[in-house]
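FAQ
Q: What does a multi-component entry look like?
A: The components come first, one per line:
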Amino acid sequence: MSLVFLARENLPAWIGRLYQDMAVFAPMTINGVAAFRALGQDEIPDLSRIPASSPKAAVFPQTETLFTFTSRKHADDLSQVDIDLSYHLAEVPRVILGARPCDARGLKLMDPVFGGKVKDPYYLARRERTIIVSQACAMPDRACFCPGTGGGPYDPAGSDLLLLPVADGWLAQGLTEAGEKLLAQDLFTPAGDREPEAQSLKDKAEAYLAQAPDMRGAEQAFENLFKDEAFWDQATAGCVRCRICAYLCPACTCFNITDEESGLKGERIRTWDHCMSYMFTQEASGHNPRMQKAFRMRNRIGHKFCYYPQLHGGTVSCTGCGRCVRACPSGIDIRRIVESMKRKGA
Amino acid sequence: MSTIDLLREAIRAKLPDLDMVLAWGGDDPLRASPLFIRTESDLENLAAPHLYVSNLAVNLYSLRSKKIGLVVKGCDSRSVIQLLKEGLIARPSLYIFGLPCEGVVDAAKINREIPDAGRATGLAVRSGRVMVQTPENEHILDLDAVLADRCLRCRYPNPLIYDQLIGEAIPVGEIPDLYQDLDEFEALSLDARHDFWMETMRRCVRCYACRNACPLCVCKAHCVADSREPHWLTLETNVSQKWFFQVLHSMHLAGRCTECGECERACPMGLPILLMRRKLNREIRELFGYEAGLDLMTTPPLSTFSIEEENIAEREL
Amino acid sequence: MSVVDGKEPSVKELRIIGFLCNWCSYGGADTAGVSRFSQPTDLRIIRVPCSGRVTPLFVVKALMSGADGVLVSGCHPRDCHYSEGNLYARRRLEVLKRFLPTLGIEPERFEYIWVSASEGERWQTSVTAFTERIHALGPSPAVKVNRYDARLVAGGL
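Then the predicted structure of the entire assembly, as tokens:
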């Protein structure tokens, strides 16, 4: 497919045009931390840093209303109550701009969870209206390990449009019809002979990541170590049980459903859940089969590197984005856990 | 011998008497991680002292049934004192290696200063400068520009409680904490302060890292923020819930917080949430002349009272 | 504010929450009522066993849930029926009062006072003064927060 060039100074104008037709989710840098958010008018994203958060909230919001309910008491008989329900599915088209290839793959990993045997209408309504414009990673950092999960810094999988960085802008590569459509603009010019420049950055990025450990094929090792309490205790010794790893993860999908009521009105909401939380898998009796943090972390690792791949042809539920590694307050590194698991459980 | 060698030898000597020793290690050039030393071979992973950012006291409460060795900087020692004072941990099951500290570097600040800090391969501190090596560049920064905020106003570089001091105590002059950051914030209009918290809480992801990294947040599974009954907070991640949680966390730390700054360091979004805790600390200092974590004998001011309060005027309407 | 003296309410009623201790202030409010002292009706009273029961978070939660003002009232110092509950309360509530402006909330929205069971008149004066003060401040800080949240929800689609 042919490449076109977008100059860095034309990015705001392009975003301005996209903004007229759709919601734009892109990373904004505040206080040195880039995080995805729905841009306001004239907000200019920062595509230079690896965003601290993943863009999954654009299709799977941290909080979403499944429906609202209102109780109506009968005036003549107050014991009689009718309940009105209402819900709505997303209608507004959206574009995720500045996703990284690992983020695009994250959405691909979520698709079979929400759109497989059981179809989730809320997720699918958003997903079908979402265009993904990824920026290839010319500068991966030491927390990155996408090649070890089957991806790569320039992996086009899951993206509609891929922006390849060059010194003064990007070469844009349309990958789907929806992505191509976004290029039909006078802001893009022919790429000319810029391709080798992009290619050399790509080669450098891939070389930088050549040492990434292979996170695949750990299913058996995990099962062998399932009962090894000492192993999991050691792996989680420093964990403070916060939720950073799951909330920043582009592939984590666990959620909670609760009713939040006030007076006669309320909402049934779906919110992100997290395996390190005390309430995770707590049963109605109060018993929790995963009481210790070691068992919760085991579930986290098992889900990503054993159960998910067993169901989905060996694909791990991790894209190597490195966000959990970068942000963990205790410096827990998922690569080290999987590596030692493979070594010990072989 | 260098500090790290002194520390290694001290731990090696005590290790047989202890279940484990908590120190700092790992291979990240910008920050060390908690290192749980169980065997002598673990000692090989000790990191350099200017990377000892985290406060290891956070682990003490959950390990209270074990015999623990703990390395503390001056600031960390105040958390240990506070935990002991509140009866949350017991002194006999603790062996404390006190480490006089010249300040630790803040990886978040380095990341702000250097675009390729994430690719760093090495970091060295020499005579007030920090050298950060990346595959493409060598960056030189002023140490003061990348020291953690709490180090810039540190009044207790030497541990206030220990069984063994590693190296020599650092001479300290009188450094008052002037709360300049707070003064600047409070000079804003009321609306501007309100808006600041709205925009700040908008970025919060409600991951509770601030709570869980706090050495004095010991309610763990019983935190009211996680409780459905009573229903203090809903699970919505809107600003109103997240803001209320920050107020809740701050209020529960009033008169207990030692300003170790772990809440802010742990925050993946870089939110300036220590400000709230500092505000409460300043008021507590003015009202009751009290600072947390300095001694074992005094009672935290909100756990006691005076019949005649010197600094609280009777309120009338 | 509306006043229970038969006149038409002149201003829209606000929501003011009063946490009153069972032994003194609730009795004081009762005395005011029995004595037929006219009072504004904006205050919704929650009776608590002791002002020492009132965690500062009750106050913050009320303000963030849409209360326009919060008044805590207990026994005078030295008169607590549990000896010392109000003395603990005084420290906590004073700290809270000084904390509110840093959050961007007017500290005047919150007040704590001491009213004994016999001080019906003092109760009347206090509650009237507090209600007038809240009316001067306008609607609750929660309104602004909720408006901000609504914008974000709409933006998050």
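Q: Is there any commentary attached?
A: Sometimes. For this entry: The radius of gyration of chain C is 17 Å.
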